[in-house]
Amino acid sequence: MMVRKTRTMRREAIPAVGTIVRALPGWRVLSALLLGSAVLSGCQSIFDQAYTPNVSPSDSPQIVDEVQKNDPRAQMGAREHPRIVASYGGEYRDAKTERLVARIAGALTAVSENPNQSFRITILNSPAINAFALPGGYLYVTRGLLALANDASEVAAVLSHEMGHVTANHGIERQRREEAEVIASRVVAEVLSSDLAGKQALARGKLRLAAFSRQQELQADVIGVRMLGEAGYDPYAAARFLDSMAAYARYSAVDPDNDQSLDFLSSHPNSAQRVDLARRHARNFGQEGTVGDKGRDYYIAGIDGLLYGDSPQEGYVRGQTFMHGSLGIRFDVPPDFRIDNKVEAVLATGPGETAIRFDGVAAGDNDNLSNYLTSGWVAGLQPETVREIQVNGMPAATARASAERWDFDVTVIRVDNQIFRFLTAVPKGSPALQTTADTLRTTFRRMTPQEIASLKPLRVRIVTATKDDTVASLSARMMGTDRKLDLFKLINALPVAATISPGQKFKIISE
Predict the structure, then answer these.
(1) Which of 3.40.30, 3.10.350, 3.40.50, 3.30.160 would CATH assign to domain 458-510?
(2) HSE-up of residue 247 (Cα within 13 Å, Cβ side)
(3) 13 DSSP 8-state letter
């Protein structure tokens, strides 16, 4: 059985205030430098063999309910599967989407290097763009990745790469080298995650996903491109989708030069060399544009109606506003901030290394909010700064805290049987602390019944262009998103000077 988890507002203990700073822009710069320094060397030999595609995409999806029970690799995957599903917001259950992914995986399974290997595919209910594998044949793909892809061959490229890790036993090899950890195939980058101790605790709770070695990644690339070609898919899809993911990462980054917000690329550096190697290997099947099926028509039909962005259980981000209909609350962040609705908290990052964390806990017996603030869950709290206030008619309390080179504002607000908590972090002495915290406090309020009723999730919708349509007119139909024109071009992989022809089908984001 697949493990499902419907998540409500977070109820776990919040990390100490002094731990909020580790994933601010300086930390991202370091990550970017490390990831960008991987040099793909010694790889020419992987192009020595040529392959002839001889298998067409399957019309009979091969998706399994159980992997081999006597295989220690399967036991490892089964042990970690529930934590993976929970940490990515549960499974995404939609029959049409599941059939689509099963069809793609089935075509790849038919040409797997290990015909005895079965695979279990799980679609994760996360807007993150990621896919990964666990030993034993557990494969995962997020609905965020499905929304970005434009055809079946691009999803097949990602899944075949992950299947390559499984068939090559990369997870087992890595476990032998790092006995203290269970290894899958990704580093999940956590914005504002915690300090070192907090990160270790987070890793134990949700499985730290670490990148494979450079050689293992290259080997999985080779296997993946071969599988693409032999399954009858466009073998150039791997390079094409890497480009799309890199473009999306630049679009969504607060700091485009340093941000590593895209989960998939956090552990798969998208260097120009790697994309070039993928294209060169694909040439073994023929020239680009002349070989393989992209599977576009049935793919876009399969994702029509796919949930996009935040799920209703998680609340919604609309520009500078976070709204949660079930909890009946909303608040705004200042201009130039970006909100990330993460698993462990709602996070926001802004100019000048300013950061915000928001979560909620059950109030329990905490009737006195001043006492709650000083009860020990905030490291570095300055007791003399504690004061009780009202936030739009709701009881609240605020305080200041300090740690290393950072100043913090802590605000707690009681709403019925919940306590909601804001932590704002700035470099010491920054005037942004007061203005940012004031914005949060003045805009936090209960939602009206009309506002709650009007909240609807965003979805991927497929539209057909008419003779009067242009890129501008189609992008104007997008809802609930910023920079509509840029996002429309990204999710449709359109070049800068793209033109529209009648009858073409495009993705838009709408309710």
Answers:
(1) 3.10.350
(2) 19
(3) P
Largest CA-CA distance found in the chain, in angstroms, rounded? 74
SS3 content of the chain, % helix, strand, coil (to 5): 40, 20, 40
Q: Where in the chain is the domain with CATH 3.40.1000.10?
A: 312-454
Q: Which of 333, 337, 336, 317 is nearest to 325 (CA)?
A: 317
Span 270-300, pLDDT tens digits: 567 778 888 887 888 888 888 788 999 999 9
Examine the pLDDT at 88 and tell me if it is beyond 70: yes
Q: What is the helix (H) or strand (E) element at residue 105, kind and residue range?
A: helix 95-109
Q: Give backbone dihedrals phi and psi of 309, rounded to 5 degrees, phi first.
A: 75, -145
Residue whose structure tokens are 């008619």: 393
Among 385, 340, 382, CA closest to 358:
340
Specify the CATH number of the domain 312-454: 3.40.1000.10
Provide CB contacts within 8 A for 69, sequence distance 6+: 75
- The tens digit of pLDDT for each residue in 29-42 reads 112 211 222 222 22
Between CA 385 and CA 392, with CA 389 as vertex, the angle to 5 degrees is 145
Give me 136's structure tokens: 């034993």
Q: Specify the pLDDT at position 94.
A: 92
- Least confident stretch, 200-209, 442-451, 468-477: 200-209
Q: Is-contact 460 147, C-beta < 8 A?
A: yes
With CA atoms as reference, report the closest residue to 436 among 344, 327, 348. 348
